[in-house]
Amino acid sequence: MRLHHLRITAFGPFGDTVEVDFDALSGAGLFLLSGATGAGKTSVLDAVCFALYGDVPGDRGSAKRLRSDQAEAGVAPEVVLEATLSGRRFRIQRSPAWERPKRRGSGMTTQQASVVVSERVDGAWRTRSTRLDEAGHLVGDLVGLNVEQFCQVAMLPQGRFQAFLRARSEDRHKLLQQLFRTGRFEDVEKWLRERRTTLRRESETHEQAVADLVSRLSEAAPPVALAGRVPDLGEVAGAARTEGWATLLLALAEDAHERARHDAAVTERAASLATADLATAERLAELQDRHAAARAELSRLDKEETQHFSSVRRLEAAGRAGRILPLIALAEGARTRSVEARAVEASARAALADHGLPADRLGDPDELARTRDQARLDAAAARALQPREEQLDAMRRKVETYAARVQLLDDELTQHETALALLPGRLERTRAQHREAVAAAAALAGAESSAADLHKRVAAAAQHAALAPQLEEAKTALVLAVEEVHLLTEQWLHLREQRIEGMAAEMAQTLVVGGGCPVCGSEHHPHPARVGGSSVDAEAERAARKAVDDAEATKLLREEQVRDLRTRLEIAELMAGTQHGRLGQQVEAADAEASRLRELAETAATLEARVAAMEQEAGELTRRRDAAKLEKQGVVSAETTERSQVAQVTAEIQALLWETDDPDLATRGQRLTALAAACDAALSAMDRAAHAHDDAARAEQSLADALRASGFADALSAAEAHLEPDDLEALGEAVRAHEAARLAARQAYDDVVLVEAAAAPAPDLVSIRGVADDTRAAAAEAVTTLTMAAGRFERLEALHAAVSAAVAAWQPVKADLDLTSELSAFVDGRSPDNRLQMRLSAYVLAYRLAQVVDAANDRLARMSDRRYSLVHTGRKGAGENRGGLSLLVRDDWSGESRDPATLSGGETFVVSLALALGLADVITQESDSGSRGDTRLDTLFVDEGFGSLDADTLDDVMDTLDSLREGGRVVGVVSHVAEMRDRIPVRLEVVKDRRGSTLRNPVGSVRS
């Protein structure tokens, strides 16, 4: 990685745009980034880190406030970095999230972070990514480090670059693994752990399957003592012994099954014989019972024979009477209907007389028919006109409604005409108000601008009054600061003269026996100079010079403060103007005028809407007036039509009721309908009476003929012989049952089989049935036993095969698990065989760390005057679970090794710097040799820490940093120590100002 150019805009303390040309700075190989405390030296490094990773190192990254507070409100923060990454030229343009003014309206809105990564190909920039996540992955792959590792290796930030030295083994493991890309060894560890977990779960599944099958075997086994002796499944060998145990249980079940089968066959044959004997005995007893029952039935039927013959004769007479009885009923019914018909005829004639018909017309059917027809015609005419009579009242009400509606429409037309006459005047007044509001809106901007200018003048006048005393105070402080500089300079020059005078004594202190004098070269020192009572050492001179530098810095600050206050006072005086007395009145008048115009302008929209509404109202009133006129014409026409219909219906009703006593058509229709119905009833009654008389005569003749043919003397004799259907059915059933019983009893009594059975001795059924029941129970029990034995044998046979298969499947998995567990524990550093308790990845990285330590010791020997050296140890550090990547510092003066945490501040800085340089050396060497990608660390930054070194150590450190240029690398040193400016000629200075920091380079390699 090599940096070429950096442009910073509105970022950190830089309010404007500043640029850094790293190519110009890199020409010397070593350059200094200096400036006063708080000027923004570290912010330059933050900008480089932000451009690469979108984040800044240390605690500053958690603040999430990267935009400069001194930048103008609309200026976007941006960092643009050109760098060579993995041999390719890239330009990375990043902007953090920031609050910007809204483009419309007031207030602020959040502008999201953005990035554009471009690569220079064939002389042109080509965009590679514009997504934050994608750009982060791309830069991380090209650099080979994440942001934390980059800050530990290539950009050692203020107060944090010793983190790698004091890191725990786990943290150091992560960094080295990322740097040297040894993740494949950790992948092997992870694969072995996951493989062990997978095999353990698979083995537990197999073990559980075998245990379940063994449990089921034990439950299904015969009730013998062997079934309870289940083998131990703690190991595969124990599981294998289950096969012999299962085979033995299967043999026992098979033997029990064969015994049960033999017992079932024997008991089944005995039960069959006993059942056959019982069936024979029961058959003989049944035949004997049937013959005895037939004999008793014949005796009983002989006793009932006389009653049977009487029932037969009665049944025959009831049959003849049943054929006569319907004719008797017909004759009686015909006589009754004839009498009733004559009574109905007399009643109908009486009803006709009630309707006003003369008596001479009551007996003539033809006259009655003509009267009925005429009444029906007149009733139909009345009914046809009756609906119109019923509608007559509604028609009259409709005429009244039409008249009332005409009156309402006349009133509505009057209202519309009045409103239309008043509307033009109202509309013109509203339009005038609207024009006035529009004019006020046009003049509002000018009035507000004038008021704002007056307010600015008032504020400037107030500021002028406040700044005048501040300027006087600043001038006084400047005079004091100048006097302080003069005084301290004199003191420093005085001390310097004293030190020069005592330089011989100071040089004499460095003389050793046998060593040459730095002045004359002699190895003999007979009279070395001695330190006087007023001698001054270099430390006192440096302290005095530092006090002068601090005083000069204070003087510069006071001068800048005076210039700033004088400029602000002049600006305030220009803005306030010369006439201050009437500003208050002018402001009040301008504010009042702006308020008046604003109030008028605010009513413009309302008045415009009111004008539109009134114009719309005029059109609506015109439309309603025209609609009311049309509706009135229609209502008047409908009223005229309805009145003519009322007159026509009234004339038709009066014509129909002329010369009648009926009050209305409904009464007339009802009366004529009743007359027609009475005529119909009389005609029907006369016809039915004649037919009923003829039917009665024919029924009497048919009854007399039937009585003579059936042998009955009269109808009374036939009625006495008649039986009800239930009695007749019961009597017939009794006769048939008697005859059927006699026939069946005779056939059974004479049956040869029954006769032979009756002659044989009676069997002992109780004894024979007991023997049969006992043999059948024994056979059922034997079958049950056989079924249970067969099921147990089949179940054990299936479980035996399943156990064999399960054990065969488990054995290779368990063996693979044991091997994988041992190997995983060894690779993971947890096995007793791994004496160092070191992981495989840590073992590989330990070799890399040893290379880093060797490279770091080369640097450290020169920087510590060969006192300190780093020691890589495989032992675990304090509070660590595993070793392999621990570091100790060996003190060659005492011969002891100690923890890096015991070093002083300056010692920690030197050792950490040597370790960082050694790490960069190893990475660069591997990149050059092609053993790891194209990741090169050609640029290294060191931020602060030099102030903790003494002069000699600082010389050694600077010589070491200067030697880095031989490998083509560039080292940027960040420091405010004054002595560093004398040692490093190429410098980039950060100058702080009230309006934001800027960059200044004496050699002109940086533009701002």
Automatic annotation (TrEMBL):
Source domain of life: Bacteria
Q: Which residues form the Rad50/SbcC-type AAA domain?
A: 6-182
Q: Where are the transmembrane segments?
A: none
Keyword tags: Coiled coil
Is Coiled coil among the key words of this record? yes
Q: Which InterPro entries does the entry link to?
A: P-loop_NTPase, Rad50/SbcC_AAA
Coiled-coil residues are: 590-631
Q: How does it assemble?
A: Heterodimer of SbcC and SbcD.
> To which protein family does this belong?
Belongs to the SMC family. SbcC subfamily.
* PANTHER family attached to this UniProt entry: ABC TRANSPORTER ABCH.3
The name this protein goes by in its record: Nuclease SbcCD subunit C
- What species is given as this protein's source? Nocardioides bigeumensis
